[in-house]
Structure formats: structure tokens, C-alpha cells
């Protein structure tokens, strides 16, 4: 996508004040794109906006208050943005977390709410605006970790009263859900101008691991990619002109790749959609 084309496009990025999200909005702003930083903390996002404006004086960037794990916050953010009349060309579901031990306000496990339930709801709510775009895109930042999952225990999408530690397997299940969501959404949007993508950014030293003990974070990050390297795949899926005619595919470091057998199971994707709708609906 040329710089002039990017200047006409608005990118709505969740979890944009740190990690891959921050590196992605910087790359988009550098190319002239208009960026919406959807994050929980205005305090932590303000320095990011200041840095963007000082580095790229012509940058068009704004903050939207959004806690993707809180359905009320997701609905308020979507409603306010839609009411503002502003366009959205690309939604990047980037916010994520791992290794938590908490239950959300709505009664769901924090890892599942942040990585799958909240993004699912946000995507549905913003879809009318994406459909108005010349070529709308939904980009799910998933992970190659989805490959290790052989089955989904649907109880993870049930409301619970007491928290339990979510481990690497739970994280991997949510990433499988990200791939299945992109594929099922592509099927549902067939014949429209909106396309979807799921991707593996590489093992990135982002703060997705912030809930883990400090020594584990430090040691693990020694072997990981930088956030800038990790942002290359979502940047590619969000802007590459050659992807405009493809939808529902999975990418690994800017190349189309084959996801797991489970990720290609259309019946499973349909079941996930129905169970997610029911879970989100149960909390309203």
C-alpha cells in the first residue's frame, strides 16, 4: 500500500501503548496512516502519543479508552467511536495477556476474556464501520502456539466465581481461537469488501508475559524477537495490497502458512462462534 493510500486509512489498534502494538502504530504513523490507540490507561498512552507527534509532526493519532477484557468498556468504546462518525479501515486485535490468575467483572477468566471474548465482541460492534471502508480488514494477532492444542475444553468459556492460574496451554487455546475466529469471520463476510487475517508474529519480547514472575520474563526475553520485528507481520496483514483479495488465511512472519489441523476445522470454528456469542450474551 503506497504512502498516499495509507494516508487515507484509519487503523484501530488494541493494546497499542506497549509491545507489538506500540511498534505497529509507530510504523503506521511513519507511513502516514491515521492511528487509533485503544488502551486501558490514558496515563501510559500519553507518552506514546507525545513520542509519535514529536517524531512524526504530521502524525494523526488519538487515544480511545478500552479495556478489552471488560465487555462494558468494549461496548462504550465501540459506541463512542461509531457515534464520532470516524472511519475504520483496519481493526488490529493485538491486545493480549498470558499467565494470569484473575476473573473479570463479567465473570470470565482474564486470559480468555482479553485474548478472545473481548476482541470477538469488539470486532462485531465495529463491523458496520469496517464494512463502509473501501477495503476493510480485521487482523488477529495469534501465535504459532496454537499448533500445540489438540482439543478445546469448552468450560474455559464459562463464567466462574473463583480464579485459577491460566498457563501456557490456556494461552495457546486462546491463540487457536484467534485463528478460528478469523476463518469463521471470513466465511461470514464472503462477498463483502472486508477481509480477515490471523498471524504468528514470532516469539516476541513484549509485555504479554507481564503476569509471569520477573525472572521468567527476563530469561525468556533473551531468546525473543524485538517488538519492531514482531510488528512486521501485523503491519504486512494490515497494509499489503496483494492481500486485498485473500481472506481467512494464516501468516507466519509475513508469509502465508498452514495453521494446525484444528484451526482449519470449519465445524469447530462454527461451534466456537456459537459458544462465544452465548458467553458474551450471558454477561449482558
Polypeptide structure, described:
- The relative contact order is 0.15.
- This protein has one domain: 3-Layer(aba) Sandwich (Rossmann fold).
- The protein is globular.
- The protein is built from 10 helices and 8 strands.
- The model is unreliable at 216-223 (pLDDT under 50).
- The chain is an alpha/beta fold and 284 residues long.
Question: What would the keywords be for this entry?
Answer:
alpha/beta; globular; Rossmann fold; 284 residues; 14% strand; eight-stranded mixed β-sheet
* Global geometry: globular
In CATH terms, the superfamily is NAD(P)-binding Rossmann-like Domain
Helix and strand run: HEHEHEHEHEHEHHHEEH
The parts where pLDDT drops under 50 for at least 5 residues are 216-223
| Count of individual helical segments | 10
As laid out across the biggest beta sheet, the strand order is 3-2-1-4-5-6-7-8
Could you tell me the strand content as a percent range?
5-15%
Radius of gyration equals 17 Å
Summed up, the domain count is 1
Instruction: Please give the largest β-sheet.
Output: 8 strands, mixed
What is the residue-mean pLDDT, rounded to a whole number?
91
Query: What's the CATH topology label?
Result: Rossmann fold
* Known CATH architecture: 3-Layer(aba) Sandwich
Number of strands: 8
Amino acid at each position: 500500500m503506497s504512502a498516499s493510500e495509507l494516508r487515507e486509512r484509519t487503523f484501530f489498534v488494541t493494546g497499542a501503548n506497549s509491545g507489538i502494538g506500540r511498534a505497529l502504530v509507530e510504523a503506521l504513523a511513519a507511513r502516514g496512516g491515521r492511528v487509533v490507540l485503544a488502551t486501558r490507561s490514558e496515563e501510559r498512552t500519553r507518552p506514546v502519543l507525545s513520542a509519535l507527534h514529536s517524531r512524526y509532526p504530521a502524525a494523526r493519532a488519538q487515544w480511545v479508552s478500552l479495556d478489552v477484557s471488560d465487555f462494558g468498556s468494549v461496548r462504550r468504546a465501540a459506541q463512542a467511536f461509531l457515534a464520532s462518525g470516524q472511519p475504520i479501515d483496519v481493526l488490529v486485535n493485538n491486545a493480549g495477556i498470558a499467565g494470569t490468575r484473575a476473573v473479570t467483572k463479567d465473570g470470565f477468566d482474564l486470559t480468555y476474556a482479553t485474548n478472545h471474548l473481548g476482541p470477538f465482541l469488539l470486532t462485531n460492534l465495529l463491523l458496520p464501520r469496517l464494512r463502509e471502508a473501501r477495503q476493510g480488514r480485521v487482523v488477529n494477532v495469534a501465535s504459532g502456539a496454537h499448533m500445540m492444542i489438540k482439543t478445546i475444553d469448552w468450560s474455559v468459556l464459562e463464567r466462574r466465581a473463583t480464579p485459577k492460574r491460566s498457563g501456557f496451554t490456556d494461552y495457546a487455546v486462546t491463540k487457536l481461537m484467534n485463528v478460528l475466529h478469523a476463518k469463521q469471520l471470513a466465511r461470514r463476510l464472503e462477498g463483502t469488501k472486508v477481509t480477515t487475517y490471523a498471524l504468528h508474529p514470532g516469539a516476541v519480547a513484549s509485555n504479554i508475559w507481564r503476569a509471569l514472575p520477573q525472572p521468567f520474563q527476563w530469561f525468556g526475553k533473551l531468546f525473543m524477537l524485538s517488538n519492531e520485528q514482531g510488528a512486521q507481520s501485523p503491519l504486512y496483514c494490515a497494509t499489503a495490497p496483494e492481500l486485498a483479495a485473500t481472506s481467512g488465511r494464516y501468516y507466519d512472519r509475513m508469509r502465508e502458512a498452514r495453521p494446525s489441523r484444528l484451526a482449519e476445522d470449519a465445524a469447530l470454528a462454527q461451534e466456537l462462534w456459537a459458544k462465544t456469542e452465548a458467553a458474551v450474551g450471558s454477561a449482558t
